[in-house]
Specification:
By secondary structure, the protein is of the alpha/beta class. The protein has two domains: about 250 residues, Type I PLP-dependent aspartate aminotransferase-like (Major domain) (Aspartate Aminotransferase, domain 2), CATH 3.40.640; about 90 residues, Aspartate Aminotransferase, domain 1. The longest helix is centred in the C-terminal third of the chain and has 26 residues. It is globular. The protein starts with a helix and ends with a helix. Bound molecules: 4'-deoxy-4'-aminopyridoxal-5'-phosphate.
Amino acid sequence: MNWLTDIARPEIRALKAYEHAVWEPGLIRLHANELPWRAQGDTSIAGLNRYPEPHPHELTAALARFYGVSPTMLLAGRGSDELIDLLIRSYCRAGQDAVIICPPTFGMYGVAARIQGASVLEVPLQRGDGYRFDPQALRARCDPSVKLVFLCSPNNPTGNRLDSQAILELARELEGRALVVVDEAYVEFADGPSLTAGVVDRPGMVVLRTLSKAHGLAGARCGALIGHADVVALLSKVIQPYAVTQLTIEAVFQSLEPAALEQARGRAATLKAERTRVAAALGHSHGVLKVWPSDANFLLVEFQDAAAALQRAHAAGLLVRDMRAAPGLSRALRISIGSPEQNDRLLSSLR
Ligand code: PMP
């Protein structure tokens, strides 16, 4: 589909990807200047003295199977952070192009855009309407400089899901002009389905998924971009070879085993039950002004005195996220849902 590459940076369209050493795992590797012996303490399956597969096809195939798409529609990277950066670097010309974000939202969209020299246009979520996004305002803001529209659902830090139908309609409307990027980092903690399946017949939509949250692999750094094969092919030229490390590849394979997936589902269910319990308890706590409903693994909570709440949590040995610098959140903290014991400790520190 031509427009998906036509709207990208011309240098990236024209770029010839780096030619890495060939990958033939059955043969002895005297072509990549590696050491023939393992480092001390290396307990990995493949050996860390060897480069990993430059573009990990088996990992891609396994993730694609898991997310229910074709492998040509998936790009694995070092967390969704890297995929956000890749999208912006591939689609936005410095000093000319722009992205749209809907604050308050995840900070990396704006940071990655500014690093690239792209403009950041803001179409705020509607606080008075449960932080709903405003498709009409967004459409009005979408001038020809806009290449990417970032929508985070469930949104960090407000916790709510955005209207899926409205997202799908927007992606359809912006076809030929801009990509709609739906960041679903927290979707496993929400009740409804992911938008991943919608990518198949909506070339203008890209969905970001991550292993960092519900799968418990934040330290491994692995995320997946799911989009049209032309978008994936374009970004594959820009991503570093060996972006996903051997240790990460092995950890992700383990996390996709049936028993690990069963455990992840059980843990997400426990977390959701704890979220309900903690929200109710905080709602009755002195000094709490509002607990926003959440579809994610955290709660956005507004306090009469957020500084004092932050301090009390810290004194109890707990870190929570200070959101007071975010637009419209001058009294808010973002609190991740922990284990039941950790949550009890949080609740008693704020009592
Ligand atoms: N998207 C959102 C909405 C997030 O909150 C985060 C992490 N806080 C990320 C992406 C980054 O996730 P990853 O670990 O996959 O880079």
